[in-house]
UniProtKB/TrEMBL annotation:
This is Molecular chaperone TorD family protein. The keyword Chaperone applies. The keyword Methyltransferase does not apply. Keywords: Chaperone. It comes from the Bacteria.
């Protein structure tokens, strides 16, 4: 059983670690990993016990010797494809059954209240899992006291990530083309489970 994160002592580096992991997952789901990123992860330490630590160790192992070209092919086959992607990475699809539905409008309203908006050079809608993870990274690392507060983090997480993330993870885990991304998803699932426990205890 994994050990829940603790929010009481943000100065011990745990908040930085949370933000960094959200940022890494956002990067991996946004696009295929570069060779430099694979080499960096593959050279990282992989120690500790628990589900989250084991999932991280598995990702480190998967990155060692991995080639960016092969993982680009896997990413494209899963998340790009010809026509409709094999696996959709958008919250509206899992929450409403269709893309660009009410959950996206509600997300945009919440982002506006936080003073956030999609950059002009990004074509993906805001309910892409990578963008939601990036918002969590921003909230945790923000110098704005209200944005960085646990209630703000919890509200965003509980509304826009927790209700559908497991369905996405299931879709990736069971897909025949998922190899490296099944490993990424095990880490994401373990992390989201730990975050859920921690928010429940906050």
């Amino acid at each position: 059983m994994s050990t829940p994160l603790k929010f009481e002592t943000p100065d011990n580096g745990e908040e930085t670690a949370r933000a960094d992991l959200y940022g890494l997952l956002a990067t991996l789901y946004a696009a295929p990993p570069s060779q430099a990123l694979l080499d960096t992860i593959g050279s990282a330490a992989a120690e500790g016990e628990g589900i989250l630590q084991q999932a991280w160790a598995d990702l480190v192992k998967a990155c060692r010797g991995a080639r960016a070209e092969a993982l680009s092919t896997e990413y494209d086959s899963l998340f790009i494809g010809v026509g409709k992607p094999e696996v959709l990475l958008y919250g509206s699809y899992y929450l409403a059954g269709f893309l660009m539905e009410k959950p996206l409008a509600e997300l945009r309203a919440d982002l506006a209240r936080l003073g956030l908006e999609r950059a002009d050079d990004i074509s993906e809608p805001e309910d892409h899992i990578a963008m939601l993870f990036e918002v969590m990274r921003y909230l945790i690392a923000s110098q704005d006291i209200e944005h960085a507060s646990i209630p703000t983090q919890q509200a965003f997480f509980s509304t826009h990530i927790a209700p559908w993330a497991a369905q996405l993870f299931d879709a990736i885990d069971t897909h025949r083309h998922a190899a490296f991304y099944a490993t990424v998803t095990r880490l994401a699932r373990a992390f989201i489970d730990v975050e859920t426990q921690a928010f429940d205890m906050a």
